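Structure ticket #2291
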Amino acid sequence: MWVFVLLAGLLAGCANGPIQRKDGRQSQRSFAIENLAKSDVDQVTEIHQREVLRHLRVLTEKLYRRNPAEFRKAGLPSVEAATEQLFANLTVWATSPLRRSDWERDFRMAFREDFAGDRVHAYMSAMLAMVMTAYDHKQAFFITDQLDAQKLYNSARNIETALWKLSNARALDGLTPVLLTNSMDGEIQNLSFEREFGKLIAAQDLLALVIEDSSNRVISRTVQNVAGFAFLPL
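Resolution: structure written out below.
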């Protein structure tokens, strides 16, 4: 029941006026007739998904800024161009190759020693495909839709696994990170990657609780061995 109290608070907050964020964006959207076919849970799901996709975009940009050689492998001119190339898939997701991709394979490919392609693209495209799988490849939700709370929970654990690998994978010398993330020795401490990943995981976990409460289906909570780089099924 507490989840529905939270939902009511969230929706009431949206009705009172838009949130003005530091980057200038506003949270409020204009009313659309299709909203009449959405439950409160559907609307909260869409809010969570938009935030999750925003965090994924931010992480992609951060990874490319720390690893500019990666987007140059693909012949792209900038961080922005490389990021847009990936997230343009969302506008045509129904026919995008990412929808049918093997995201577990792509995660592993990003860290293979013999992989000569864009590691950031491989890693973040796998992340995007995995997250969209948890949302049943949808970006709009209606009363007839029912997400699986277990998939959302499992996706949060998979993000933790992918984060562990990103933070710990090293090149053949055993010292050089395969992909740079946070600050290196001697640099000013920067934990922005952990913060973004933390927000991403929290959003998926919270939505899993919302769906679990609304559907009366109990999530099977498991202890994940992140060091084994093994993912939970979706």
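Closing remark: The two ends are 27 Å apart (CA to CA).
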